[in-house]
Amino acid sequence: MFIKQISLMTIISGSLIATSCNSAGKKAEESTDSVATTAAPQPYGHVDGQEVLQYTLTNANGIVVKVLNYGGVITDIITPDRDGNKGNIVLSYDSLAGYLQKGNPYFGTLVGRYGNRIAKATFQLDGQTYKLAANDHGNTLHGGMKGFDKVVWKATPQPGDSSLVLEYTSKDGEEGYPGNLQVQVTYTLTADNALKIEYAATTDKATPVNLTQHTYFNLSAGKDANILDHVLQLNASNYTPVDDLLIPTGKISPVKGTPMDFTAAKKIGQDIGKVKGGYDHNWVFDKQGFDTVGSLYHEASGRYMTMATSEPAVQFYSGNFLDGSLDYTRDGAKYVQHAGMCLEAQHFPDSPNQPSFPNTILKPGERYTQTTVYQFGVK
Ligand code: GLA
């Protein structure tokens, strides 16, 4: 069965069951007349006077994903290796203090209103100049000083323990962005071992929107100190070259013949030494629309992950700034350089200032959506 937790909370059916749209949810609906059960979220501390809770998603195969309503943080993705030994394949802390520490590099968080960088923390829209919080060498990074990673979201678990809906309203002017932005993110652990992340947003004024997820993967589940032995493949023939502050130059360049080429599966460590600072770039996918875009494989454990997304690009960040100095790490782990890596499905960095890049402006009456699926397995 799906429900392994000792403490169970009962949810009266009503609209929750009526809106259930996943297979686990359907099972719950079939197996009960008007009542579904779900695991009770666990207390995880307080932020801004609000309670932080940890929610657990499970599937019939024993995969576990744990999520906080703070920042939409994914604290755990627990999957088996090829011998069936389970482990957490994401970098994480042992408590909320870790996530609140200064310099926490977005472990597991949702990112918004605009993931990645906006040059000089400013952009123009409809003849107006907007000033954003400059939190990265004069540029704005990941939504500013207090982005979507640092706020408490309203969390609504769906029946059947496999899906969690998070909602947040970002106020007009927050971090300098125009418009009240209503955001909804749904995490679903599917029956076939995928974590599906669906984002939606609407606004009452035109505004840039670029939502993503900042989980650091290490498929060895703590066995390897870094991800340099992981094998990455990306269906991306191009990337966006950047300046020293990681702002795109505006060019879209072929990866062929460069260390950026992951069109054929390649160990991350193979060419990383040829890239100043390591990988922290935006790869442009070849596909249009929602499709599979790549894979990650860790041979020693047998774990692999495929990625599919609706987004035109991904920021592959190889954990370059990790230096072993973070406190409250899970099990006292030393997260040294390259201890984990992010595959942040997204639009191109600095799009609001780059007219040739795909549009990131959401207007009133429109609906922003993005879907990214990470599927886990062994071979
Ligand atoms: C992103 C950026 C990196 C770094 C990390 C957080 O992925 O691209 O440069 O800022 O977030 O440390």
From TrEMBL:
UniProt cross-references to Pfam families, sorted A to Z: Aldose_epim
EC number per UniProt: 5.1.3.3
UniProt xrefs under SUPFAM superfamilies: Galactose mutarotase-like
Enzyme kind, highest EC tier: isomerase
Record field: catalytic activity: alpha-D-glucose = beta-D-glucose
CDD domains for the chain: galactose_mutarotase_like (cd09019)
GO biological process: galactose catabolic process via UDP-galactose, Leloir pathway; glucose metabolic process
Pathway: Carbohydrate metabolism; hexose metabolism
Keywords per UniProt: Calcium, Carbohydrate metabolism, Isomerase
List of catalytic residues: 214 (proton donor), 344 (proton acceptor)
Cofactor: Ca(2+)
InterPro entries to which the protein is assigned, alphabetical: Aldose_1-epimerase, Aldose_1/G6P_1-epimerase, Gal_mutarotase_sf_dom, Galactose_mutarotase-like, GH-type_carb-bd
Residues binding beta-D-galactose: 116-117, 214-216, 280
GO MF terms, alphabetically ordered: aldose 1-epimerase activity; carbohydrate binding
Coiled coil segments of this chain: none
Family note: Belongs to the aldose epimerase family.
Subunit note: Monomer.
Record NCBIfam families: PRK11055.1
Protein name (Swiss-Prot/TrEMBL): Aldose 1-epimerase
Source organism of the structure: Chitinophaga cymbidii
Gene responsible for this protein: galM
